[in-house]
Amino acid sequence: MNKRTLIALAATMLFTLPVLAQSKAPIRIGAVLSTTGPAGYLGDPQLKTLQTYIAQLNTEGGVLGRKLELVHYDDASEAGKANGFAKRLMDDDKVDLLIAGTTTGATMAMAPLVEKAGIPLISLSGAVVVVEPVKKWIFKTPHTDRMAAEKVFEDMKQRGFTKVGLLSETSGFGASGAKETRAVAAKYAITLVADETYGPKDTDMTAQLTKMRGVAGMQAVFVFGLGQGPAVVTKNYAQLGMTLPLYQSHGVASNEFIKLAGKAAEGVRLPSPALLVANSLAANDPQKPLVTSYAATYWKQYKDEPSTFGGYALDALSLGVQAIKAAGGTDKEAVRNALEKTKGFMGTTGQFNMSATDHMGLNLSAFRMVEVKDGGWMLLK
Questions:
Q1: Phi, psi angles (nearest 5°) of residue 246
Q2: 161 and 263 share one domain
Q3: Total domain count, the chain
Q4: Quick check: is 370 in a domain?
Q5: 379 lies in a domain?
Q6: Residue 96 and residue 57: Cα distance in Å, rounded?
Q7: pLDDT digit string (tens) for 217-236?
């Protein structure tokens, strides 16, 4: 081998080694979640789910031969903190993908920074504002608040309810939910005869409920909120002796809601992903294998029932991994494009079919109507 060949070989190795080293570098997943504070029972199972399934993927060899690394921060249910953590994840931690935003407020606080930086973010929050209007770099896994209102109104219409009272939280999710509820009510021939609000940190809502109780002709009450607030409303509802049918949004689709509300939760109805009633699904239901597998995995790891909020995180991680595989790496534009082309992807939340005009990709069939019965969740037929 002559000197010129040796020099060429050395140059090739100098060029190739950094590329190989980079290709084997971990794929960094950044997460900003509400693992403590009022939304803690939403964010805690999200973090646990990400940790469990990232460890599982790494045991199986990682993704494209690279290990996954989770870098996460807790915004303590304070949306204002989310932006700073997102900036740290992008600038200092150099993450490849963001799975972030337990709450709508947190997601929207991060949105301008994410759009400017150009990094894919899969949100775990519910409000339609996250994906409407479409934002180039932001996607989401939970159903929207508008869908929740429509699913609830479908059930109310079938039961002949036409006069409904609305009680909503003034947070990002609750405020957006109230707005969407008002917007779709007429479509289902429903009149909102009462419209009250409460703060996300309020610990007693008897004043609002007492006012609503005095509204003549009201046939049902719909509560739009997340975290601990809706459980407080439910307990106050029972304490006041209110007996009208009580509906909640998917913001409380968790066993933790029943624990917080206690016996007062009996009879509450709401729209939920299939996970909440996994064992009640028909044997041929296309979601049953996935949701029962997730439930078993979560129970084995934490000796606790999984929540739909954890399911949102599993779907986000699975969608992200699929997009990275389709992109052949972590090039952010390529991963974003792959996410946008998602078709027929079955998650715990439903079947995702995304497009350039739909960065969520779910429809109303992904929701199941459920009711609290005998201290547990029952699937409404």
A1: -115, 125
A2: yes
A3: 2
A4: no
A5: no
A6: 17
A7: 999 999 999 889 999 999 99
| Mean pLDDT computed over 276-283 | 92
Burial class (CB in 10 A: 0-12, 13-18, 19+), 87: middle
Helix axes 40-59, 308-327, angle to 10 degrees: 40
Tokens 């534009």 correspond to what residue?
333
Shared domain check, 201 and 90: no
DSSP 145-209: HHHHHHHHHHHHHHTT--EEEEEEESSHHHHHHHHHHHHHHGGGT-EEEEEEEE-TT-S--HHHH
CA-CA distance, 320 to 137, in Å (whole number)?
Answer: 13
Regarding whether 58 and 114 lie in a shared domain, the answer is yes
Domain that holds residue 90: 20-143+289-363
Contact yes or no for 331/339 (Cβ under 8 A): no
How far apart (Å, rounded) are the C-alpha atoms in residues 367 and 369? Answer: 7
Q: How far is it, in rounded angstroms, from Cα 281 to Cα 308?
A: 15
Q: Which residues pair with residue 191 across a beta bridge?
A: 163
pTM: 0.88
